């Protein structure tokens, strides 16, 4: 059975240090939390060549009218079975896509590429449910740094051997 798990998720809640409510505000860049939480996976199916992931906030549609992409990445080697704290910034094998802070309107237009590509943690105004989904793939997608969500979805279509989902809450 393919599963995802994290010591940073306790009683269903992601530890505050990995979002906007972190006591260490030095990990927040331009209002976007940057410290990714540690997680691990096991039980990938035979034939797995690489992994891709998405970290989504579906509750955001009620607040801003869009589902929020916090992180998309691909190119994760099949030999990996965990990402440590801040692994989104430190693991060189990951190919990162644009998150929703790349939206071309409102206050998001002025944000730097440093926060528009890669991990951007939770920053809700109320409690939201987040889903981290890891896809076990039978190939390595040909994606370049800064790809978009549609690029990922199109690239992995027909190549997903299995997926694992870790749900969590963040916010009051």
Which structural class fits the helix and strand makeup?
A: mainly beta
User: Ends: how far apart?
Assistant: 32 Å
CATH level-4 homologous superfamily: PEBP-like
* Number of spatially distinct domains: 1
Count of helical stretches: 4
Radius of gyration: 15 Å
Mean of pLDDT = 97
User: How would the global form be characterised?
Assistant: globular
Low-confidence stretches: none
Instruction: Provide the CATH topology.
Output: Phosphatidylethanolamine-binding Protein
- By CATH, the architecture is named Alpha-Beta Complex
User: Total strand count, please?
Assistant: 12
Write a compact overview of the structure shown:
With about 170 residues, the chain is mainly beta.
How would the blueprint of this fold be written?
Layout: E1 3-5, E2 9-10, E3 13-14, E4 28-29, E5 32-33, E6 39-42, E7 50-57, H1 60-64, E8 68-77, E9 82-83, H2 87-90, E10 95-96, H3 113-116, E11 128-137, H4 149-156, E12 160-170
Antiparallel strand pairs: 1-6, 2-3, 4-5, 6-9, 7-8, 7-11, 8-10, 11-12
Polypeptide structure, described:
The protein is mostly beta strands and 172 residues long. It has a single domain (3-170), classed as Alpha-Beta Complex (Phosphatidylethanolamine-binding Protein), CATH 3.90.280.10. Helix content is 12%, strand content 34%. It contains 4 helices and 12 strands; from the N terminus they run E-E-E-E-E-E-E-H-E-E-H-E-H-E-H-E. It has helices at residues 60-64, 87-90, 113-116, 149-156; strands spanning 3-5, 9-10, 13-14, 28-29, 32-33, 39-42, 50-57, 68-77, 82-83, 95-96, 128-137, 160-170. The protein has a 5-stranded antiparallel beta sheet with strand order 10-8-7-11-12, covered by helices on one side. The chain has a 3-stranded antiparallel beta sheet with strand order 1-6-9, with no helix packed on it. Strands 2-3 form a two-stranded antiparallel ribbon. It is globular, with a radius of gyration of 15 Å. The N and C termini lie far apart (32 Å). The model has no long low-confidence stretch (mean pLDDT 97).
């Amino acid at each position: 059975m393919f599963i995802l798990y994290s010591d940073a998720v306790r009683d269903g809640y992601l530890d505050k240090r990995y979002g906007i409510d972190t006591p260490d505000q030095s990990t927040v860049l331009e209002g976007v939390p940057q410290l990714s939480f540690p997680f691990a996976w096991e039980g990938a199916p035979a034939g797995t060549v690489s992994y891709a992931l998405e970290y989504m906030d579906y509750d955001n549609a009620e607040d801003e009218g869009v589902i929020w992409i916090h992180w998309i990445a691909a190119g994760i080697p099949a030999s990996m079975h965990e990402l440590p704290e801040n692994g989104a910034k430190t693991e060189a094998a990951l190919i990162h896509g644009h998150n929703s802070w790349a939206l071309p309107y409102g206050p998001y237009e002025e944000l730097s590429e440093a926060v528009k590509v890669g991990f951007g943690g939770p920053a809700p105004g109320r409690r939201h449910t987040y889903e981290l989904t890891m896809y076990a793939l039978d190939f390595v997608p040909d994606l370049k740094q800064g790809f978009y969500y549609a690029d990922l979805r199109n690239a992995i279509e027909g190549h997903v051997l299995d997926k694992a989902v870790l749900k969590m809450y963040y916010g009051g």
